[in-house]
Amino acid sequence: MNVVPDTSVVIDGRVSATIDDGQFEGAMISVPEAVVAELEAQANDGIESGWDGLEELQRLADLADEGTIDLEYIGERPNAIERGHASEGEIDALIRDLAEDLEATFLTSDIVQAEVAQAKGLDVEHIAPEIREVDVGTLAVENYFDDQTMSVHLRTDAVPKAKRGELGEMRYEPIADEPLEESTMDEYAREVTDAAKESSDGFLELSQPGMKIVQFRDYRIAVGRPPFSDGIEITAVRPIAQTDIDDYDNADELKDRLLEHQRGVLISGAPGAGKSTFAQAVARYISDHDFSVKTMEKPRDLQVGPEITQYTELGGEMANTADALLMVRPDYTIYDEVRKTDDFEVFADMRLAGVGMIGVVHATRAIDALQRLVGRVELGMIPQVVDTVVYIEAGEVHTVYDVKTTVKVPAGLTEEDLARPVIQITNFDTGEPEYEIYTFNRQVVTVPLTDEEGGPGNESGVDRIAKQEIEREIRSIAQGYVDVELKSQDKAIVYVEENDISSVIGKGGGRITDVENRLGINIDVRTHDENPNYGAGAGSASANGSGGSGGGQTAGQMVTPEVTSRHIVIPVDGNHGETVEVQAGGDYLFTATVSRGGEIQVSRGSAIAEELEQSIDRKEPVTVVPS
């Protein structure tokens, strides 16, 4: 009797099992080289099925040595083109052809392969894939958890560690005395993936060469292998808290807000702050109040009830999942996690389609979550996409923002003709506006309305932006150094070189009037000699508008550039590795980093080099000033 097994039955280990049962005892087992090639490729890619298949081939070799069967390898290895089309059935066809040529029994556990072989007239033995019961109570990684353990971190040749403690007070600490050997880690890893495949309590969330992510009961387990990682690594995470929305501050207001109509909500916070725990509480609450709730997750690890279906990427794209969900029409969708531009675009599309959306976002401040929408969603649409921001800190609701659009003169500006749509972010608890987002002189700005967000010298966000915009406008006119001093919200003094006065003011004051009208602020133009702080380094702004020190205002190191055939070399005493400004005759030229060798090199022929050479020719002093 001659038997030709395919890849599926070798991986499954059923060839040797069938021989042990006596069915093929004494038969010639003809293993196609195409099967060996598939198993070898999978093993090289770190896919466990390849190793399982190679172990089965070793068992067949042992049975042949014992005289239980005869074993041979037949056919040729598939070429690169055939291997590239394996998913389309090319290698399966090669194996069937060999079985047909030998008039052998074709052994498979692949139902599609069996049906095709039978249709072609082959003698087919279909063995259903073995279903092994998994003792779900004996996963080795579970033994490392206690009631306060959020995650366990295991790695070859390293002592096991865990994150333990209360939310917001986690400690990363050793939980054993001895490092784990590679054989132990390999056993743990195989146990995890086997449990995911064979138990109804788990599934493989992601399976790529070198990385598998498993969802098993309450655990999300990531298994990394070389070459993706430099050793076998297992990270197991589980939620340690199950909360209700009533456990949080502002619960009643938030509940009313969520139930009155579908909302756009961003739940933000630092890693480990309790964002997902809060999202789970929200999901359960709205589901219990007759709303249809779904989730979009990769990986799926939110702990929700069976009435909430958890979706992941469809065809590798969350956009495809969104298209499918729009056919399902849930009332609310929980999107965990919203990180990349594509995620924000999908979130916005679903929200604008009328679906209530709750997104989980990493952010170190509440306002940062909203700012991540800027540039990804049209500014005027942001309040329609997100009208509520909830910031979680140490497991508690720290801040809730209400987001809405109003037409007004932005805070800090006074001219009524500057009224425009402004996104106002209001503290839900106090009812006080804390931020405004609007377009100012063609750029989107986020302006804090409280002093605690101010910059140096308690300068407010409005002041900083206003100074930058005034400086940018004047620099487009003036040739020399420009300095700006804000006197009030509607008045500023601009200091320029004496020979720039007429250019900046313009004929009959027309040019400076145009600038004033555009910016909505009165500007008094003066020379640097009239600036009491000139040369003292106070209130200065760099010539590139970045707010650093400027020409002639900070004492610098006088240097003597060397002009070579290809470079202008500026020797610098000290400041190695630091960023400095290069000035000529008190005017800013450019910013550069001093090399370890203590010099700055500028390639000749560049615009900067030409300007520097002109300054050298005019014998203007060249200085280097720390920025």
Task: Write a structural description.
There is one protein chain. The protein is α/β, with parallel strands linked by helices and 627 residues long. It folds into 5 domains: 2-126, 5'-nuclease (Rossmann fold, 3-Layer(aba) Sandwich), CATH 3.40.50.1010; 136-237, Beta-Lactamase (2-Layer Sandwich), CATH 3.30.450.90; 245-452, P-loop containing nucleotide triphosphate hydrolases (Rossmann fold), CATH 3.40.50.300; 456-530, K homology (KH) domain (GMP Synthetase, Chain A, domain 3, 2-Layer Sandwich); 557-626, Immunoglobulin-like, CATH 2.60.40. Helix content is 30%, strand content 29%. Strands 15-14-16-17-13-18-19-20-21-22 form a 10-stranded mixed β-sheet, with helices on both faces. The chain has a 7-stranded antiparallel β-sheet with strand order 8-7-6-12-11-10-9, covered by helices on one side. A hairpin with a 2-residue loop joins β10 and β11 (219-224). The longest helix is centred in the first third of the chain and has 18 residues, at 48-65. The chain is elongated. Mean pLDDT is 82; it is low at 452-458 and 536-554.
